[in-house]
């Protein structure tokens, strides 16, 4: 159906997977609220996903590098997603939801990272921008958030499993048309992974960006509840995501024009500064429509930050360990940061409200931006980047 060198299956995979991811990210908190959970309990459930990803991301990344296949690992994870999601959405008690959620997320969380890792390598093969491929994920996210939000407003949040499975099946079907990557080296061994842990620049960078990624993940988890607190509906939540991810898609699509003009850390610092402003403004609004109007800042924060961070990490990691390194990055971004953002954010929004949560996020993002600026001004990070890039 597709030629061997076609990028269409990969673009369709990113589109369909991120469409499923929209449903979980945007509406799971509202679904759990429908199930009768309070803000703190929702925080515990949302923290399960990031916790599972800490183990799942490196595990599946290692398996991908060891057996030199991204395609087969993606297919295994999508199959696991489809089977476990059916069971997960049948659970009604907090303990059952948490336990089944851990298994569900073990298969779900690596798919995005592996898809992006494959996109990065295919982009290098074709000599195109990574963002030109990755933006299809954003298009899928935006399309799903807009359509599914309106659908769930009409039929009820309890039916969110149906569109989720539809997009999941589509992701599995198109995965069979993927072209795998080939690495001319011996299969990776566990001892090789220690090279990542010993890479001081990589480890320090991951620690510093957590000041930003914690705030991003807290927003992912609670923007729906915050809009609900301000009086918005499921449809408005979907429109908020659509507006934000649309700007993200534009940032990814135009990355080939603007991205390589400066050092990636410069873009991370710019994104961090905008993150700070964004959260402080969100803390001050009192109408959900204002959130919609400000969601264009999502592309200027996450879009710019993610492209720059992913590029910087790719330059710090040996090609042999690309999948493993990328998934360790994801485990930090979406795992550790997600746990902290979900647990602390859930407690704050439950007891003090969304305004206090976003104000605290603004302070944290400001701290992170200052620290990354200092990291960039010191020769340590820049020299490591140049050294690996020239290898």
From TrEMBL:
The keyword Oxidoreductase does not apply. It is a multi-pass membrane protein. Pfam families: MFS_1_like (PF12832). The keyword Thylakoid does not apply. The gene is hcaT_1. This is 3-phenylpropionic acid transporter. The chain crosses the membrane at residues 12-30, 42-61, 73-89, 95-114, 126-148, 160-181, 202-219, 239-258, 265-285, 291-313, 325-345, 357-378. GO terms for molecular function: lactose binding; lactose:proton symporter activity. One of its GO terms (cellular component) is plasma membrane. It comes from the Bacteria. It comes from Oceanobacillus picturae. InterPro entries: HcaT-like, MFS_assoc_dom, MFS_trans_sf. It is found in: Cell inner membrane. Keywords: Cell inner membrane, Cell membrane, Membrane, Transmembrane, Transmembrane helix, Transport. Residues 8-358 form the Major facilitator superfamily associated domain.
């Amino acid at each position: 159906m597709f030629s061997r060198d076609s990028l269409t299956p990969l673009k369709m995979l990113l589109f369909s997977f991120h469409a499923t991811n929209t449903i979980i990210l945007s509406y799971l908190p509202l679904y759990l609220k429908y199930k009768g959970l309070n803000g703190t309990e929702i925080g515990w459930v949302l923290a399960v996903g990031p916790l599972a990803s800490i183990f799942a991301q490196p595990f599946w990344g290692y398996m991908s590098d060891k057996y030199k296949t991204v395609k087969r690992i993606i297919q295994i994870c999508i199959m696991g997603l489809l089977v476990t999601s059916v069971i997960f959405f049948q659970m009604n008690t907090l303990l059952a939801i948490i336990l089944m959620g851990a298994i569900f997320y073990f298969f779900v969380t690596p798919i995005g990272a592996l898809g992006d890792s494959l996109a990065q390598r295919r982009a290098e093969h074709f000599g195109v921008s990574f963002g030109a491929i990755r933006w299809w994920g954003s298009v899928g996210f935006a399309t799903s958030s807009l359509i599914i939000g309106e659908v769930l407003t009409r039929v009820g949040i309890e039916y969110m499993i149906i569109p989720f499975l539809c997009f999941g099946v589509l992701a599995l079907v198109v995965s069979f048309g993927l072209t795998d990557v080939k690495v001319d080296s011996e299969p990776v061994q566990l001892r090789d992974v220690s090279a990542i842990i010993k890479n001081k620049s990589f480890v320090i960078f991951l620690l510093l960006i957590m000041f930003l990624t914690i705030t991003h993940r807290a927003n992912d988890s609670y923007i729906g509840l915050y809009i609900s607190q301000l009086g918005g509906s499921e449809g408005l939540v979907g429109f908020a995501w659509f507006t934000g991810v649309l700007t993200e898609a534009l940032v990814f699509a135009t990355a080939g024009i603007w991205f390589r003009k400066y050092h990636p850390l410069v873009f991370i610092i710019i994104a961090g500064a905008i993150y700070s402003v964004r959260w402080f403004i969100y803390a001050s609004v009192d109408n959900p429509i204002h959130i919609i109007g400000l969601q264009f800042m999502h592309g200027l924060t996450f879009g710019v930050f993610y492209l720059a961070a992913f590029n910087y990490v790719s330059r710090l990691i040996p090609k042999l360990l690309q999948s493993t390194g990328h998934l360790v990055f994801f485990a930090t971004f979406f795992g550790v940061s997600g746990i902290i953002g979900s647990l602390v954010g859930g407690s704050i929004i439950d007891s003090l409200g969304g305004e206090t949560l976003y104000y605290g996020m603004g302070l944290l993002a400001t701290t992170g931006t200052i620290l990354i600026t200092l990291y960039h001004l010191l020769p340590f990070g820049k020299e490591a980047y140049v050294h690996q890039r020239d290898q």
